[in-house]
Amino acid sequence: MQPTTNKKILLNEVESRKLLKKYGIQQNEYGFAKTKSEAKEIANNLTLPLVMKVVSPKIVHKSNFGGVKLGLNSLKDVVEAFDEINANANNFGVSNIDIDGVTVQEMESGVQELLIGVKKDDTFGNVLVVGLGGVFVELMKDVSLGISPLSESYIYKMVKNLKGFPLLDGYRGTERADVPAFVEMIKRVEVMVTEEDKVEELDLNPVIIKRNGDGCLAVDVRIITRA
Ligand code: ADP
Ligand code: MG
């Protein structure tokens, strides 16, 4: 755990994923490695292709630091990615002492990338945000907001009100996505932030939503708590 400003603490990926697990919020398979040989050992127990990501209290947006390597298909790729991730972090001014290690995780594919966010507001309490990931949120600001407590029917409404919803709903013969699993995940996130009152901010981005019946998985999580 690492202090940020205003006595806020950015949980690392391992701590954040433990909290997701506690509340039954589905995530992809992963392990945490401090060394290259640990990374190889984890990789041996996962299904290819893999992804590796830097774990450092100094790095919030990992891809901006060259800290995310996708599509690793062999142990050789894993070894190379380990060195590259460390070198990239060093080049961005993060020294080895501030690099805890890497996560090695399964690469997932699905129908779309989505996001779930929560911010604790002094007036409203927990404000939940859902949306489609990538350009939809960056360019189109395509998100729906809801203030906890949320009914299941309101959560459905939040998802269906997204401009990009047709992309989850079989638009032009594309695959239908598992919207009920996404709604269930939003409900569980709401339970988590209600029970864990120290959680100030949460971002699951992306959540990869699969075909109807195949569920959805958080593959990136960022949680900020109060000290
Ligand atoms: P950050 O948001 O800190 O830059 P992410 O973990 O979100 O890092 O990774 C950046 C992008 O890489 C994601 O938005 C997603 O498109 C892709 N990605 C990350 N992890 C996975 C994964 N396990 N499977 C598939 N794609 C992934
Ligand atoms: Mg992310």
Automatic annotation (TrEMBL):
Short name of one Pfam family for this protein? ATP-grasp_5
A GO molecular-function descriptor: ligase activity
* Domain annotation ATP-grasp: ranges: 17-53
Q: Which UniProt keywords apply?
A: ATP-binding, Ligase, Nucleotide-binding
* Highest taxon above the source species: Bacteria
Task: Tell me if Kinase is a UniProt keyword of this record.
Answer: no
Q: Which family does it belong to?
A: In the N-terminal section; belongs to the acetate CoA ligase alpha subunit family.
**What name does UniProt use for this protein?**
Acetate--CoA ligase family protein
